[in-house]
Amino acid sequence: MDVKMPHSSHDILDEDDQSSSLLNSSSSTGSEDDTQPKQRQRGYRKLQRRQRSRYHLPRSMRRCGCYTLSLFIVFLMLYNYLPNIYLDVQKRHMPLSDWSANTSLDIKDYISPQQDTALIMPRGFCTNKTFLIIAVSTNLNNFVERQTIRETWGNTTEFNYSAFGKLHGHMKGRYLPAKPDRLRLYADYLTGEGDSLTATVRIIFIVGRSSYESHLGNETLIRLNNEAEMYNDIIQDNFIDTYNNLTIKSVMALKHISRSCAKSCAYFLKCDDDTFVNVPNLLHYLLGGTVPLYNDTLDYYDRRSFLVMMPHNSLNATTGIMRGHQFCNVMPVSEVSSKWYMPYYMYQADAYPQYLSGAGYLMSIDVVDRLYEAALNTSLLYLEDVYITGLCADRANIKRQHHSLFSFAHSQHLCAFKGSITQHQVKEETMVEAWRYVSNYTIKCPPPGNYLNHMRLRNRMNC
């Protein structure tokens, strides 16, 4: 039989406390459930602030540290770049071998504007109306290069406007045709009509003389005179024919074209003897048409110029025209061993004005005279394209415009020769190969695929 022992007084009090605490907890459960998470969050934030305060410096000291670090970075940049700038200027103070600091930079001292300085001149030069005259800058001894041009793209009797339809007939409807109003405007320079339309084109070669004529004897001169007599396309002038004298050669060309051709010609193209000129494409452009877009020429275009069916890509102007491959923001070369090294005493600015590649630039005949007059008052620069199409064009206030189909290099794809206007750095064997390909009218170059790859288009120039 179980016997129940009476509770002690201490046990009775504990039970009372527990019961009271249970009552209190039951009455305050809802409020504690709400406040405890908030209290924990406040405590956590206080703890974080205490920890941060242990490691963080005062705000003023942090700012001072940032300023010090910024100054240190600027100092490092100046330490690295200022010596390079100084050395660059020092490098550009090295003289050119044939253009020393004491040599006159007045172009009039070399071209004698008031005198007839030509040693050889074509018979009847510019006496007949000529739609396009092409002046090829060539070295005195480049007999092979000149003959290669005569037998390839320079054979303008065959390679004329009538060849345009043969080149691009399979692309009809994918380019703009010649404009009727321009055909009427230049009717005096054209013969035939339709597929037999032909424009008058004249090609001349500009050469100087050798500084070693006394050592060479008369052999080179006899050969040059025989060449001039046979082809009637040589202009030789009285200056030493070197690379660093190309500016003199080009200004001489402007002098003779301005004097003899201003009233009988419409357009002028200057190019080098390693340039391939697609004459039919150039004539079509001058007559207001556009050249069809090919897969192998797509890389030459930007997002505006590749729209060859749009009128804004055709030629409307008849004067003030200057087109070619445009360069912008080009800095003078300070490396003395470079072909394009520019001494500081010849050009002091940090960058050249925008200019067109000397590989081939086109202008209307009125621009020739304006450039020539500007050259007479512009300090000479031995880089002829920078001088003629940059400095002189700036002085004459002539706007230069980029044309996608004037290439300053040459493509590895022969279809690019069919679809462009100029290709540069073309050696004799490549020029013959390109000519055979271009003049084979059975070869049909393909257009870009159905899904045009816009990634291949160039970014537009911001000059």
TrEMBL record:
Feature: compositional bias, Basic and acidic residues: 1-12
Positions of region (Disordered): 1-53
Membrane topology reported for the UniProt record: Single-pass type II membrane protein
Transmembrane segments: 64-82
Subcellular location: Golgi apparatus membrane
Keywords on record: Glycosyltransferase, Golgi apparatus, Membrane, Signal-anchor, Transferase, Transmembrane, Transmembrane helix
UniProt GO MF annotations: hexosyltransferase activity
Source organism, top-level taxon: Eukaryota
A Gene Ontology biological process term: protein O-linked glycosylation
Enzyme class (EC, first level): transferase
Entry GO CC: Golgi membrane
Ranges of Basic residues composition bias in the record: 39-53
InterPro entries: Glyco_trans_31
Low complexity bias (residue ranges): 19-30
EC number of the protein: 2.4.1.-
Family note: Belongs to the glycosyltransferase 31 family.
Protein name in the entry: Hexosyltransferase
Protein species of origin: Drosophila albomicans
